[in-house]
Amino acid sequence: MEIFIDSSNRDEIGKWLKQGVVDGVTTNPSIMLKEGVRDIQAATVPICSLLGARPVSVEVTSNDHGEMLQQARTIATWASNIVVKIPIINQDGISSLGVVHTLAEEGIAVNATAILSFNQAILAVKAGATYASIFAGRVADEGNDPGIVIRNVRSWLDSWGFTTKIIVGSIRACMDVQSAALAGAHIITIPPQFLPKMVDHKYTRETVRQFNDDAAKASEESMKKMAVRV
Ligand code: E4P
Questions:
Q1: With 19 labelled, which of 5, 91, 134, 221 sits at a CA distance of 20 to 30 A?
Q2: Cα–Cα distance measured from residue 88 to residue 111, given in angstroms and rounded to the nearest whole number
Q3: 180-202 confidence digits (pLDDT tens)
Q4: Which of 85, 126, 197, 224 is an active site residue?
């Protein structure tokens, strides 16, 4: 399973990249707005270099399918590791599958995003998406179980041999990461604020403190023994 960072914050991405846990990055216009990005290209290109060959998802910003297509083609030229995010439908409920399909035919990697149901996911796969982003938190907002959606999509992909990867996003708590991983997500995209919480544990701290204290005691005793011999 892979872990992506759901952020456009270069410092956070770099910090976790150095720790060996980052396989890619996802962004969206809301994340960028919140993180102070006003020029998407200027913010994205350095992230793409930082990531090397790892994928960086960037979303189109239009509700019009023709414009989505044009934007996607431009965004794809920014770096070789760009993946273009296309919402599965536009805000009026009109299918974006044609955009996904055209881009896939042109060899542009597409992340079909804002997926909230099994049916949306399988259509994204059929249209040729490289990634299908299931928004776990938003599925749960509607009273549905994201684990069931993820598990069903994964099992359908595996049984028919499709290579599209499920990205689980919209992570709202550390527990969502565990649930998504066990439900069969290929990738979980995690907002950086959850990573320190995932790695920390108060009893681990106490355990390490005990080891450090005992190591200090042992070294103190050996110093004393050496002092007696001298
Ligand atoms: C994933 O690719 C999206 O960027 C993100 O996880 C959406 O999450 P939200 O529900 O917090 O907007």
A1: 134
A2: 9
A3: 999 999 999 999 999 999 999 99
A4: 85
